[in-house]
Amino acid sequence: MKRKNLSEEQKEYQALLQSVTDYVIAVNRNYQIIMANDLFINKLGARSEGFCYKAWKNRDDKCDDCLVEKSFRDGRVHQNEEAIVLKDGRIAQMLIKSTPVKDDQGKIVYVLEAATDITEKKRLQQELKSVKGNLEKIIDARLNHLQKSEEKYRTIFERSRDALILTDSNGKIMEINRAGVEILGYRNKEDLLDLTSVKELFKDPEEFYQFQKQAFGEGVVTEFEVRLVGGKSRSFDALITSNVILDLIGRIIGYVIIIRDITKRKKAQQQIEMRNTRLAILNAISMTISNSLDLNEVLNSTIDKIRELLESDSVRIYLLDGKRNVLNLAAHKGLSSEFISKSHIRHREVGAGFLGQAVLACETRVVDNIEAFEDSYAVLMVMECVDSTAFIRVVSNGQPLWVMVVSSYSGFKFSANYVDFLTAIGNQIGVAVDNANLYENLKRAYQKLKEAQEQVIRTEKLASLGKLAATVAHEINNPLAAVLTYTRLMMKLMSRGRFTQERLEDIARYLTIMESETARCGEIVKNLLAFSRQPKITMETSSIEELIEKTLVLISHDLEMKNIQLVKEIEPDLPKIKCSSRHIQQALLNLLSNASEAMTEGGTLTVTAKRSKSDGFVEAVISDTGCGISEEDLKNIFEPFFTTKEEGRGVGLGLSVVHGIITRHNGSIEIESKPDEGSTFKVRLPTVR
Question: All domains of the chain, ordered by start, with CATH?
């Protein structure tokens, strides 16, 4: 075959260089690049005639560990990883390999230097290394956590004070902690592991089926209360909490069962319930005592509570008589009429039988078997089917007060706590007895006081009647004396023939005086009737402003004659009042007349109507600038027959009548007054709601 020349070989090499994906150059012994593929030229920006160290590393001299030099020297392939800066400034990790190329005589013509970009490979290797390192750490941490968790749960398992049981799907015990062995009362763990199923721990098989049904259906059981049976037939109350154990495909492969012994807790709870029941009884008895002072009602209600809440069959309560020699049956429930009808059951002398001896004993006596005791009255209790009885003595102020007898027909044993509680009830009833006795004494004292008060009232009424008679007699006697005098005078004139035309003026004057005095007597009688009769009031809705206006019209002429200035201050839109218009107008007229009479030399009368500071009321205020009232007289101003007017000008019934009218309207009246300054009457009346 004809040998190809050098230029053809170069062309073939050049074509080969362009076909590869690596950076490839050919370098002679002077480190000059004699050939380079386009990838090398484009990415590194080097020319084919340049030096290799300039192209690769941008150096001015060959590299210290030059691969080209090594390949020329020993004729072998050499490689190295280096960081190369590309034309775009990016740093690429390159695997550079130098391969010597020889001619036919074996002489190295040039070195072919090829570089493979391994940047991405390096990055992936680094990430893989990082992931591998993290994965190893995660696995180590997980194993360490599992080991610690196993140690922790093993510690919890062994140190738990509750029984922890692991079973298979059939309920056979696979593992149990030390507390479980102790709670269930077995000698060792092996005895429990020998059981066929946890079903053997349930006292009632039906409760096991309920537990199993709930665990299978819901996957969890929370605080299932049950009665369990342990070693040596030990029975106790327990709370069971359980979870199922599932495999990877969701099948039940076992159960975790937690058993807590609640026997002590239930006993404590029962004691609390018993205390609460007893407190409820004491509270009920206390409420009964506080709601009534009738001794029979208190005793019977207390017996009902005792029988209802303590399930006692019968209760009797005996009270000592005044001489403290005999016990008398005061109340009873639950006994036959035949038994109660016996005289020695209804009454018992102190010291006779169990009952009579209870008064003398220093402590409560309990008889559990009556037939075994010698007592002349025991046969009656046996006939009544009484089995056990407690005799509770109650003492007040150091002295026996009464005895409560509580009996049972069913063989009930009276414990010390039960007896103490009955004694507490007895003391409560003792308070009721003391209160009832005090109440009776108070009633008797009140009755005596009432009788004495009635006697005083009768005496006072007689005195008031005498005062009234004297006042009325005095007030009426004067005008009647005038009438009588002028009547006799006219009769004398007539008998002497002096009843002439010339004396008509005198006779007319006499008749006028007689008319005035007779009218005065009528007014006195009218006021007296108004005070004593207390006429019926007809209520209607009225305006206080209108009532004041109507009343002022009646007295306006009198005010004008006496030179009294009237000032009105009426608040607009006052609420209506419900009243007897006639009576309220009468009360206002009396107050206005009194004010007018108090200002003999003129003055100012102020009438005000406004809303009261107290909700639901209006106020009518009447003030004058008259003579006023002394502090001593103010105390009696509303008393009947009390007056500060001059003799012959009033009997003291006007303000008393006013006070009665306002009071019967559910209102109030107040007065403020100072001598020589005037008086103010404030009337407060309820509004229509």
Answer: 6-117 (3.30.450.20), 160-261 (3.30.450.20), 270-444 (3.30.450.40), 535-686 (3.30.565.10)
